[in-house]
Amino acid sequence: MSDGFAEMIQRANAFFTDLRADNTKDFYEAHKATYTSEIKKPAVLLAELFAEDLAKHTGRAHKPKVFRIHRDVRFSRDKTPYNTHLHMMWSQPGDAPAPAWFFGSAPDYLILGIGVMHLQKDSLTAYRNMIDRHGDDLTDAMDTSGATLSDWGPDPLKRVPKPFDADHPHADLLKRKAFTLSRDVPDGWQDAGLLRSLNALIPPLLPAWSILNETFPG
After folding, report:
1. How far is CA 148 from the centre of its chain?
2. pLDDT digits (tens, 9 = 90+) for 162-171
3. In which element (H, E) is residue 129 found?
4. CB-based burial of residue 1 (10 Å sphere; 0-12 exposed, 13-18 middle, 19+ buried)?
């Protein structure tokens, strides 16, 4: 049964399709009220409701965030001012690295995912040690999740980092400086309801999330 968020996604797809064609301040300002009332406000509600559901499934509190439409262009060659997608994140409280949940909606995709971003220094060392010791468990969890590795985050290294062997069985994972999995929201979600469909994706992703959460408990 539809929960009303299908209409939000439909409006968002139409809005972002037009924004891709005319990514300018003039276009955005002319449609800002529509974006705020028909996309941003229901997105905030969806994020808050799903945070409650994540807490029930994981036993951990998650803070919802709807990403800004304005792009940070300070260090980018692409100076278009606005994002042409709707992205959300649910992260655990605190400053320490911990696995987060991600939602992405755009005219060409609708996904839910998990992962840890921008691993550096101690967190990167912890990730690599986890891959070395429990890589088989993680890849088994990945296989059963129905999700695929995402390219979100920094580019991977070209070589396996030391002290790990170049022919390590999980060499590709060791090269990564971020680890994210994403899964398409299955067809039929409009009838089932977006929130219910997202909830149905939590259990398949939970084993991989649990392995990450043991490595980065927040």
Report:
1. 12
2. 999 999 999 9
3. helix 121-145
4. exposed
How far is Cα 137 from Cα 29, in angstroms, rounded to an integer? 49
Superfamily of domain 5-215, CATH level 4 = Protein of unknown function DUF1054 (3.30.930.20)
Which amino acid is residue 90, in one-letter code? W
Plot region of 59 (φ>0 → left; ψ -120 to 50 → alpha; else → beta): left
Q: What is the pLDDT of residues 4-41, one digit of tens each?
A: 899 999 999 999 999 999 999 999 999 999 999 999 99
Place of tokens 């550096």: 120
CA-CA distance, 218 to 207, in Å (whole number)? 17
Question: What residue segments make up the domains of the chain, in order of their start?
Answer: 5-215
Rounded-to-integer distance, Cα 97 and Cα 194, Å = 28
- Tokens linked to 196: 């219910």
Query: Helices 194-215 and 41-58, interaxial angle, to 10°?
Result: 50
- Angle subtended by helix axes 25-35 and 5-21, to nearest 10: 170
CA distance linking residue 62 with residue 213, whole number of Å = 13
Say how far apart CA 142 and CA 206 lie, in whole Å.
10
